[in-house]
Structure formats: C-alpha cells, structure tokens
Design goal:
The complex is a heterodimer of chains A (about 575) and B (about 120).
Chain A (H helix, E strand, L loop, with lengths): L2 H17 L6 H26 L4 E4 L18 E4 L1 H20 L10 H18 L3 H20 L4 H32 L4 H11 L3 H17 L7 H9 L2 H27 L3 H27 L4 H21 L3 H31 L16 H14 L5 H13 L1 H27 L24 H15 L4 H15 L19 H15 L6 H20 L4 H21 L1
Antiparallel strand pairs in A: 1-2
Helix pairs in contact in A: 1-2, 1-4, 2-3, 2-4, 3-4, 3-10, 3-13, 3-17, 4-5, 4-10, 5-6, 6-8, 6-9, 6-21, 7-10, 8-10, 8-21, 9-10, 9-12, 10-12, 10-13, 11-12, 11-16, 12-13, 12-16, 13-14, 13-15, 13-17, 13-18, 14-16, 14-17, 15-16, 16-19
Chain B lengths: L3 H19 L3 H23 L21 H32 L15
Classes of the chains: A mainly alpha (about 575), B mainly alpha (about 120).
C-alpha cells in the first residue's frame, strides 16, 4: 500500500536530516529534499491514477470499521485517496520541489533546518489532503501551521517577526475554533470518520449542534484560506516570509484550506439543508467581497511581495465562489483554478525573490529601471502578469470560463480580481524591467521596507523553476479535461461513477478580464501628475476608497482578531437565521 | 445535561478574546491566547463526560462498566502538546522582537509599517 508512504516518507526523511544535520553538507540535504518531494509526487500521481477506478482507503493498524463489531462505531483512523485529493497532494509536492530548486544555497548556513521544516510542512499538507478523519485533519492542520509559523519567522528581521506573530496568533485561534468544532461534531455523531459522520448527519438533518460544529470548522478553514474578514494576517505573513516559503504559502497552503473546506462541506454535509444554504449563499458573497477587497488592495501596493500577497487574497475569493457552486462543475473550476493560480503565483513570488537577491529591493518605485539587464526575468514577469490578468490560455482561463457559465456573481469576481491584480503586476513589470511608467497613483503611499535576500545563486538557476512552473500553467488538453471531469464528481461523493463536462464554450465575456487588465495597465503607464484644481480633486476622490481600505488593514493583531470574531458572528448569524 | 458545559467554554473563550483585543503587551497577549485554548479543553472534556462513570481503564474493572469517553481525552492531550509548541514559538518570537525593537507593545510593532 502506497497511501501511508506518501505521508510517512517526508516525515521520515525530515527526521533523518535533523539527526544528520551537523554531519551532512547542506547541498546534500537540499538534494535529499528535492528527491523526496519528487518521489512523493510520483507516488501521489500513481495514487490519483489508481483512484480513478474507486477510492483507495488505508486503515492504520488494520483497524477497519468491521473490527469494532458494531455498526456505526469506527475505532480506526483512515487515509483515503480520491483522484482530486491525490492530484492536489501531487501538485503540492511539485511546488515544493520547485521551491527547493529555487532556494538552492539560500539557506546554507542553517544546517538543513530549512529542509527539515519544509519536509514537515510537505508531510502535513499531503496528510491534510488525504486524511479521512476529522481529528487527524486537525492534527495535520496544526502541524502545517506550526511549520509555517517557524518558516515565516526564520529571517528574524523586524517585519518578519511581527508578521509571524500576527500569523501565529490568528491561525492559532483558528485552530482552537477547529478543535471546538470537531468536538461538537463528535458530540452529536459519535464518530470522527468522514463516511460514518456523513451517514449520521444525513439521518439527523438540521441540528443546531451540527451547524455550530460546521460553523467553527469553516471559520478555521476560512482563516487559513484568507477570506474576508478573516484574511488580514495573510498580507503580513506572505510579504515578510523568505521568497521560497512565500511560493508555498501562496501557491498551495491557502488554497488547500479551501479545497478541504469544499471536501468537508460536500462529503459530510451534503444532506444538511441549513449548512448547504450557507455554502451556496454566504460563501458566494464572501468570495465576491474577497475578490474585490483583495484586488483593490493589490492594485494600491508598491512592495512587490505585499502586492502579490493581496493578489493571492483576491484569487482565493474567486476559488471560494467556485466552492459555493457546490456542484461537480464548481469543483472542476476549483481544481483547475487552484493548479493554475498556484503555478502562476509561485512563479511571481520567485521573480520577486530574484529581485530581492540581485537588486536588493522589492519596491517597484525604488526599483524603477533597475531590472533592464534582467530581461528574461522581465519577460517571465510580464507573461505571468498577463496570465494572472486572464490571458485566454491555460488552466486558470479554463476555470474562469466554467465560472462565467455558472453564475454572474462568480463572473464578476473573476473579472474584477483578474483585472486589478493582473494590471498591478504588469505595472510593476513595466516600471522595473522596461522603464515605462506614469506618475505613481494610489500605490505611492503604501507601506514598504528596505530588505534583501542572499544573492550567491546564479540567475539561470533561479529562473529555471520559474520557467518550468509557467510552462505547466499553460497546460491544456483533452487528458486534463478527462481527469478533472472524473475527479470533480468523486470529490463530492467518492463512490460516484459519473463524469462532469469540463470544456466550456468560450464566450466574448472570456476576453473581458484581459482587456480590462490591459486598459488598467496602460492607464497607469500614461498617468501624469495632476496640476490643475479639477484633476487634483479627482485624484483625491480616487485615493479615498484605497485609504479607507488601508485603514482597515492596520497591522494590529487586536484588529485582526476582532475582525475574525465579526466573521464568525456573520457565519453563525446566517446559520441560525436560515 | 446541564447548561454549564456550554456556558463555561463560551465565557472562557470570550474573556480570552477580550484580553487579546485590548492587550498592550505581547506576553500578556500570549497568556490570553492560552485562556482561549483552555476553553476548548473544557468543552471537549465536558462532551466526553458521563455522570457516574469511571475512568476508561479496564485493568481492574470488567470491560462493560460505564466509563467516560476516552477519545475526547486523547484529543485534549494532543491539543495540549500542540498548544505547548505554539506557545513556546510565540514566546521565542516575543524575545526576538524585544531584542530588536526594545518594546513589546503591539501598537508600536506593526509589520512593514514605519514607526508611528
């Protein structure tokens, strides 16, 4: 059975590396980490292929449900691979492998502790995707969080410590909520296994304790998935973490939380009317709000990593609207968008890392014209910006086409978030690499910082993983359609044998995001400083909403926690009202 | 079942949150986080509790005697371990922040923002 190996292998290698940390040269441990990530990726691909015939289940210690001798009593803990979960796990490993290559030599002086933490993180993410047990889910969630907290604080700089502190407090609160939710679900259903729990939930129907449990678990996953108003920690943490770590944070960690939220809602609560009403309505509007807030904040940033962090928030909003569709096509859009966005955002964070290493800054205004001799990086960034802004090729575009057909609100979220974030990235690329720029707009007054990263790596080694990820984001074809079409219904019901149509008709609206992106980017390139009174008052009017949004993103952990409680109150209020 | 097993965790969680929101010192804030966490312990233990039942150890009892739910106790135990790791990490961060900035007041420590 390969299933437990996918989790145990990275855990084992991490332990070995920790033991041998002082004996091995650090390049050896980097190599070991890359090989481990690729091996686990291969295992997960095999699992995904095998799971097409039916879900693979592994009961630890052989404690299958039959061993308890009573129906509806499950003593064991299981891992289960459906095609979608195994594919997400494989994608996770791929991102880690790319990040290890990118970080070659970056962390030389820390005795392979970086690799150890990253492998623990990898094991936690794979376990998080594959687990079929509520409490096990919580354990992986915590392991993932603790590894992430430590990796954020690693540079021990001013901002990274404060960012890591905010990240830790908010996410620790989230995990307490999750544990309380798991407790409530167990109190009513008497089991922690997904399948058995789903059976009991279906029998109970609408029950306040079950609703409360879902609410708490959802609040925790929405915190990890950075959905308004739980999102405030993300921009601090992702902006200050070392670039190779930000690649993982934005590329897979946050979207994995939304993936698991979809899995729990669909596999356990599919026949609980109040919970499904909440998923279909509230999550749609929260997703739309997240797309707009994240997009506007991303557009008004000058610190490249902070800009990318807010753009991640915006695109998570799009993914949440796909979750709220609660249908096989919605799940297909979610999976495609997760993969496409992860690849593009990973590339962009790597390019920000290249600038931090070679030009010692990530501020697009400070870096004006400083990247002219880094042309390949400039081309990659422009291309990634176009992909983010809805260029009609590749995985992300296919997902937005499905969303366009599903509902107008989802289409709006996709258009707004793509256009604002794509334009912001293109504006930064034009400034840094091509020296094309108008006067700075709302981004002028955004927070920024002087910092740099180690620069001993050759440029080509840093650009290699970028190119690989970008090329993968361009993938499209019948094989992918067929796999996603099989995987999406099995994410909702692992025993399903249907297949969802994935190919969407390209309508004129699918060119809207890229057109808007180009218009916005062009506007920022021809922008001039206002001199006459009327344009000046116009600019002041334009600044007002950005100022108001920035005021809410205060950087104070107390405010973040207060907003989390507001978000939880909204969730609970909607549930008790419906 | 009495209402207190629900009220006590809710109250503990609420005062913990109040403490975090109004805190002016990182170490105090970490303490408040621990209060929030103890709310989950109380909730889980009271979910697993059964009146008149003994501990779930059948070494000197016949296996059919009523016992409290051992699953919930296992969950609490795991959570305590994880909680200790998170608290330790937070305290280390607090020490490092104090070394670099000379203050632990959240109002004066904001990531990526100039000193107020």
């Amino acid at each position: 059975m390969l299933l437990p190996v996918a989790v145990l292998l990275p855990l084992g290698v991490a332990t070995l590396l920790l033991v041998c940390a002082h004996l091995l040269p650090s390049r050896v441990s980097t190599m070991a980490a890359i090989v481990t990530a690729l091996t686990v990726a291969a295992i997960c691909v095999l699992l995904a292929r095998a799971a097409l015939a039916g879900p693979l289940v592994h009961w630890f210690g052989g404690w299958t449900p039959a061993t308890s001798g009573r129906p509806d009593v499950v003593l064991g803990i299981s891992l289960m691979a459906d095609p979608a979960s195994a594919a997400v796990a494989a994608f996770t490993c791929l991102m880690f492998a790319a990040s290890f290559v990118f970080a070659w030599g970056y962390f030389d002086e820390v005795h392979s502790h970086f690799e150890v933490l990253m492998l623990l993180f990898l094991a936690a993410l794979v376990g998080f995707c594959l687990t079929h047990d509520m409490f096990n889910l919580f354990v992986w969630f915590e392991l993932m969080s603790v590894a992430a907290f430590a990796l954020t604080a690693y540079p021990l700089g001013k901002s990274s410590l404060e960012g890591a502190f905010n990240f830790t407090i908010t996410n620790a609160l989230g995990s307490f909520m999750m544990l309380a939710g798991v407790g409530l679900l167990y109190a009513r259903t008497g089991t922690l296994d997904f399948t058995t729990m789903a059976r009991v939930v279906t029998a109970h129907g609408a029950d306040p304790v079950l609703s409360g449990g879902f609410c708490l678990v959802a609040a925790a996953l929405l915190t990890k998935g950075a959905i308004v108003p739980f999102h405030l920690w993300l921009s601090d943490a992702h902006a200050v973490a070392p670039s190779p770590v930000s690649v993982i944070f934005s590329g897979i960690m946050v979207s994995a939380a939304l993936f698991v939220l979809a899995k729990i809602a669909m596999q356990i609560f599919a026949h609980d009317p109040p919970v499904m009403a909440l998923v279909r309505n509230l999550l749609l509007w929260l997703g739309l709000a997240t797309a707009i807030v994240g997009g506007a904040m991303a557009y008004a940033q000058r610190h490249l990593k902070r800009l990318l962090a807010f753009s991640t928030i915006a695109h998570l909003g799009i993914m949440l609207t796909a979750v709220s569709a609660a249908s096989p096509r919605g799940m297909a859009a979610l999976l495609l968008y997760m993969f496409g966005h992860g690849l593009v955002k990973g590339t962009l964070f790597m390019l920000a890392g290249v600038l931090l290493a070679l030009r010692a800054s990530a501020d697009e205004i400070v870096l004006y014209r400083k990247g002219r001799d880094l042309l390949p990086a400039g081309i990659a960034m422009t291309f990634a910006g176009l992909m983010l802004g809805g260029l009609p090729v590749g995985l992300m575009h296919q997902a937005t086409d499905i969303l366009d057909e599903l509902s107008p609100a989802m289409m709006t979220a996709a258009i707004v978030a793509s256009a604002l974030t794509g334009a912001a990235v293109l504006r930064a690329a034009a400034r840094i690499f091509f020296g094309v720029s108008g006067a700075p707009g709302p981004e002028m007054t955004a927070p920024t910082e002087r910092e740099r990263e180690r620069d001993e790596r050759p440029l080509w080694l840093m650009l290699l993983p970028c190119a690989a990820l970008l090329a993968m984001a361009l993938a499209q074809g019948a094989a992918i359609d067929r796999f996603i079409g099989f995987a999406a219904p099995r994410l909702i019901d692992p025993a399903a044998d249907a297949s969802a149509p994935v190919a969407a008709h390209s309508s004129p609206t699918s060119y809207l995001p890229i057109a808007l992106t180009l218009v916005l980017a062009l506007l920022s390139a021809v922008r001039r400083r206002p001199v006459r009174p009327f344009p000046r008052s116009l600019v002041r009017l334009e600044l007002f909403p950005f100022r108001a949004l920035r005021f809410l993103h205060s950087g104070l952990v107390a405010d973040y926690v207060a907003w989390m409680i507001v978000g939880f109150a909204i969730l609970a209020g909607m549930l008790s009202w419906s | 079942m009495s209402i207190f097993p629900w009220l006590v965790p809710a109250w503990l969680f609420a005062i913990g949150i109040y403490g975090i929101v109004t805190s002016r010192h990182y170490v105090h804030l970490i303490g408040c986080l621990t209060v929030c966490q103890s709310a989950t312990y109380v909730l889980l233990l009271s979910i697993g509790y059964a009146w008149g039942a003994g501990p779930p150890i059948f070494y000197d009892h016949p296996p059919s005697t009523p016992a409290v739910d051992p699953v919930m106790q296992a969950l609490v135990l795991t959570d305590i371990v994880v909680g200790a790791a998170v608290t330790a990490l937070l305290l280390v961060i607090a020490i490092q922040v104090h070394k670099r900035r000379g203050t632990l007041d959240p109002q004066r420590l904001r990531p990526l923002r100039p000193d107020q």
